[in-house]
Amino acid sequence: MQHETAKLCLNEGFTFGEVLRLHQLSVLALVWQHISWHPGSSNAISGYIKGIGMKRFQCFIFGWSVLMVVILPFSAHAALVVGKITRLKGKAEIIREAVPTPITASLGMGLELRDRIETAVDSRLRIELIDGSILSLGEEADLDLSEFEFDPREKKRSALFGMDIGKVRVFANDLEGFRKRDFKIQTPTAICGVRGTLFLVWVKSKRITQVVTFDKPVQVANRLMPEKFVVLTKNLLTSIIKGQVPTKPVLATDEMLRELRKGLEEPPAAPATTEATTTEETTTEATTTEETTTEETTTEATTTVPTTTEATTTEPAAIQVTTTTERRPRLAATTSTTTTTTTSSTTTTTTTTTTTTTTTSMPTTTAPIFEKLPGPPARPSRLVD
Q1: Is 199 buried (19+), middle (13-18) or exposed (0-12) by CB count in 10 A?
Q2: Taking a C-beta distance cutoff of 8 angstroms, is the pair 121, 79 a contact?
Q3: Which of the listed residues 214, 246, 261 is the one where a domain comes to its end?
Q4: pTM attached to this predicted model
Q5: What is the pLDDT of residues 212-231, one digit of tens each?
Q6: ∠283-284-287 over CA atoms, to 5°?
Q7: Which of 169, 252, 322, 365 is the most exposed place for a label (fewest CB within 10 A)?
């Protein structure tokens, strides 16, 4: 009550020092009231103050003021956080008791006890609780974090969440070895209790709720008649109609399961999507740089070619051969220069080779080995023994 008053004073524009001073005065007023109501205790209190000194007594009052105004509100606030939003598609709002207007949900947002989560059309989100349980909420659904207690040291877990409309898929962490591990979902017509399993609740309206389990047993009853319940095993489904006990469990067909799971597809994780987009942009940039560099280098090499294609030589014996170094660069003396261009993304390396041909006057080196000569071949000379 005292720290709520302090928060109200801060909201009204009081400074922190003024709030502390007011709190000190209130504590002193309580002490004085105690003395006036108990005259016999005034001597004891005055003796205590005289024994420790007035300055120490003031420090004592100041310390308690800081504890009540600062430390206790923050410790109480931290204890209320029960989970956070890990995935989100579309829009959702958080209705919180201490906040007058709805809060727009966002990835990584912490959720407090007694928060109410509401999703919009074509929206869904996933909540991870501090005990390791996961709740996936479909579109146009609501979920009340009514009660939640988790104590690993005492090995206790107790959860009670409410729904008025929509779908929720629940993975209740089994927490083997815990002495208490209750996990319940309550709707306008039904109450579902588990210890640890994967199940789905669909509140179609205020009159009808459907429940199906995908793993371990789930106990389902009408919330007005909790003693009359049914136990669902894997892939069994029941309907709870207002004023009636749960229907006889039936095996859910593939068509039923598709209808139940519709709208509960997991939204993609935001960090993975961001990383993929960044990689795509980097690849595009590298490709563009590669094409530009190659085009410029090729143009420069083409300019050099006409200078090296004018070389002609004459072979003896009336056989004239014209050699174009552009077609057969391997037969001429050449000098190769290799240029390497590396893009900024370090993912693409473009290598361009520029060939400079030097014309030689030696007639015996310009004729290609495999070049087809015109005319018949020369008659070989007679061997002399």
Answers
A1: buried
A2: no
A3: 261
A4: 0.53
A5: 999 999 999 999 999 999 99
A6: 85
A7: 322
